[in-house]
Amino acid sequence: MIIAYLGRNVNDYRKNFLRYLAKLKFLCPVCGSNTGLHDSYDRHVHIDENIEWIVIQRVICTGCGKTHAVLPDFIKPYKHYCAADVEFTLRDIEDGAATEQANTVASTSTVKRWVREFKNRGFQAVGALRALLHNVFDENINEIKLTGLKIFGALEHVLDAFPTIESNSLAIGDANIWLTHHMAGIYV
Ligand SMILES: [Zn+2]
Asked: What is the pLDDT of residues 145-155, one digit of tens each?
């Protein structure tokens, strides 16, 4: 899976995703070789009260032969919800809101699962982003600056050190764009 900026929303994506894809170049997150367009499949995503179907393009690696789905950053990987809904819900809860009061169409049990997974993966993603920053951009984040920060604060602090990219400007989305372009299997 590779996350990329492929439009502002479902409508933009539907109309223009092939144009966005044509502007981007993906290296295989597993082996680093070039990739080319492969096949596509349909998946659904919950946008507010609606279920929308979109086409997802896959690329294939010229080196190892693995295929990678290229997902727009406005959807959350492996979740059928839009990334903004998930992020704003998680931010509210991190700021102290009760799970039951979350302003989302997702059920309370779904929200509890989001929170649990975010707690498991959030700081792991911060660590992976720091490693990436060091390996790719030769930049280091001072550990002290991260002390006491919650997950979103830590993610934002680390993301600030990366170059600006075109995206939907979500912390989770931006983290996933960087992570999935460079590493396989690490995302938040
Ligand atoms: Zn490969």
From this structure: 999 999 999 99
